[in-house]
Structure to design on (603 residues):
């Protein structure tokens, strides 16, 4: 590739990567699938991008550093408090489950795909990973109820590190000619201990090294994220130089340590890393896919396809069944976990790196090494397609998710919000109250409501709230700015049409302001202070069935012209809000939720 084409090729990779991410969002497809297809198209098919010519010897160091940043960002999403309820399940999946996956995958790779034993064992270790870069977006699309979401998130990140570590140990055993018998167990355990110890010390040390100056304000705010980024790269490089591939463990633990300490705020760092992760994933998948010749995948033979089928149909279900035997997980949750194991960027990077180095090493007895990376990419593509398209229907079939969730996330736990939550709960809608005031949350829980003490404005709040069955946001705090920010923050989760707040205070109303707000609830003059005042005067939130004979007009005749319709819930369970842009229409067989005083029949 001539040097003058480097700049257009690099720009093309970045542009196509983000374009594929956007197209995946528009089409509601897994982004990794479009990224892989794009990489294959611009690489072997069209010849527009040649990563080896473009980056040369820098290719795999750049890939390794990028994976380190991605895993650090994954560690920043893990809340150790979740382990109080899901810890046993996560521990089993990341130990027994990983071991079962390794063994069964190696057997399938040897007997079905035809790989020699050393390569089969290496591939088994490589494919024990699932991948947060794929699992995370899938969970955001599915929004399953219960604990399967947090369990899958933890497994995808922890198994990534464990799988990469196992793969490195096997890889170095192959390079030095060590066997896989009992005689080779001692050196392997010694290497594993060194890797784990180095990663643990480097990870904790890196978190301390970053937190210390940030807490003392030695670093200006605008340099927090760049300092964190370069420190992650430095910790990874130092740890990896001491013990090969311990850097992945180090940066992951560094992220977990920073996420779960309370002395140093890291919300802005998390936001920066999320943006960097998206760009890195977009570029990496295109670059790695562009290196794979389409003929290499087509020439794998039927045994390779049988191998992939066995991974999905036999290996994953068997590993989950064995690992979760006797666990507190319900059988439906176990089935869902058995149907969710897409491979991601770590498998792609590790297989490409190891395949290249083993080809260069020309070790006798490693026939078929040229099929190692293409077989891994075949697994990635097929598992992403199968799990990406099947996860949502599977969750719905198991009653772990809804096609059109109608539940409500209410921001605020004031008396009006709690009364509304009771009314919504009475019509069988799932309701979650969130407030940063601990006393208000305790009161709501004592009333039998589901409430969490959390800050919904945190960037990672959607990932840590139980949003299964939730499809609407009602921002009902007394602070209009908080309500607006909450609606802006959750537009990506629920959509613009399903984020609501009170009307803006009079001084704030001006043209264009609506772009920065949620949809207005209830119409003019329905601020939170007025609604609370009406409740203090004796009005209550009532749920009233409507019919052909008793419609909206009859409801107003019963409760007076000042009675305020709030929401209606149709017979299908569809929730409709009373808004200025779409006022109420009387619907038979609906249930009307409204704020009103005593009716004429009660008087």
């Amino acid at each position: 590739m001539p040097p003058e084409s480097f700049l257009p090729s690099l720009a093309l990779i970045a542009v196509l990567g983000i374009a594929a991410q956007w197209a995946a969002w528009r089409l509601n497809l897994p982004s990794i699938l479009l990224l892989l297809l794009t990489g294959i198209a611009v690489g072997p098919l069209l010849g527009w991008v040649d990563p080896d010519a473009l980056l040369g010897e820098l290719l795999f160091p750049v890939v390794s550093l990028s994976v380190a940043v991605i895993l650090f960002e994954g560690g920043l999403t893990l809340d150790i408090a979740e382990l109080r309820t899901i810890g046993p399940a996560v521990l089993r999946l990341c130990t027994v489950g990983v071991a079962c996956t390794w063994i069964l995958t190696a057997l399938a790779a040897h007997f079905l795909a035809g790989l020699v034993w050393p390569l089969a064992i290496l591939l088994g270790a490589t494919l024990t990973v699932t991948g947060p870069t794929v699992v995370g977006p899938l969970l955001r699309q599915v929004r399953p109820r219960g604990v399967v979401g947090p369990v899958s998130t933890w497994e995808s990140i922890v198994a990534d590190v464990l799988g990469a570590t196992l793969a490195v140990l096997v890889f170095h055993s192959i390079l030095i000619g060590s066997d896989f018998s009992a005689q080779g167990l001692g050196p392997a355990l010694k290497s594993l201990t060194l890797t784990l110890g180095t990663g643990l010390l480097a990870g904790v040390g890196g978190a301390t090294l970053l937190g210390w100056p940030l807490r003392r304000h030695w670093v200006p705010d605008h340099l927090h994220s760049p300092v964190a980024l370069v420190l992650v790269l430095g910790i990874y490089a130092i740890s990896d130089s001491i013990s090969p591939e311990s850097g992945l463990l180090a940066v992951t633990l560094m992220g977990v340590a920073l996420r779960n300490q309370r002395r140093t705020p890291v919300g802005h760092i998390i936001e920066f890393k999320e943006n960097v992760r998206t760009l890195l994933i977009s570029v990496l998948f295109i670059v790695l896919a562009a290196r794979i010749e389409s003929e290499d995948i087509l020439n794998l033979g039927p045994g390779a396809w049988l191998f992939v089928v066995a991974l999905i149909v036999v290996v994953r279900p068997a590993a989950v069944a064995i690992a979760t035997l006797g666990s507190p997980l319900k059988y439906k949750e176990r089935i869902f976990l058995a149907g969710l194991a897409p491979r991601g960027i770590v498998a792609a990077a590790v297989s490409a790196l190891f395949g290249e180095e083993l080809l260069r090493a020309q070790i006798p007895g490693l026939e078929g090494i040229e099929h190692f990376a293409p077989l891994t990419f075949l697994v990635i593509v097929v598992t992403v397609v199968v799990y990406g398209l099947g996860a949502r229907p599977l969750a719905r079939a198991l009653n772990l998710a809804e096609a059109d969730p109608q539940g409500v996330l209410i921001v605020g736990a004031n008396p009006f919000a709690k009364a509304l939550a009771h009314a919504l709960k009475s019509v069988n809608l799932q309701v979650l109250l969130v407030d940063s005031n601990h006393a208000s949350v305790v009161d709501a829980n004592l009333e039998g409501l589901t409430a969490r003490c959390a800050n919904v404005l945190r960037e990672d709040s959607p990932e840590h709230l139980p949003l299964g069955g939730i499809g609407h946001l009602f921002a009902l705090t007394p602070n209009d700015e908080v309500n607006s920010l909450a609606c802006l923050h959750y537009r990506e989760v629920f959509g613009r049409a399903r984020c609501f707040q009170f009307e803006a205070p009079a001084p704030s109303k001006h043209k264009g302001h609506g772009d920065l707000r949620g949809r207005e609830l209830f119409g003019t003059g329905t601020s939170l202070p007025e609604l609370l005042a009406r409740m203090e005067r004796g009005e209550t939130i009532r749920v009233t069935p409507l019919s052909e004979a008793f419609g909206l007009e009859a409801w107003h005749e019963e409760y007076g012209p000042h009675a305020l319709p709030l929401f209606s819930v149709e017979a299908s369970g569809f929730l409709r809000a009373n808004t200025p842009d779409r006022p109420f229409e009387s619907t038979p067989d609906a249930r009307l939720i409204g704020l009103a005083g005593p009716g004429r029949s009660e008087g």
Remarks:
- The beta strands are 407-411, 431-435, 451-453, 470-475, 499-501, 519-520, 540-545, 564-569, 575-577, 591-596.
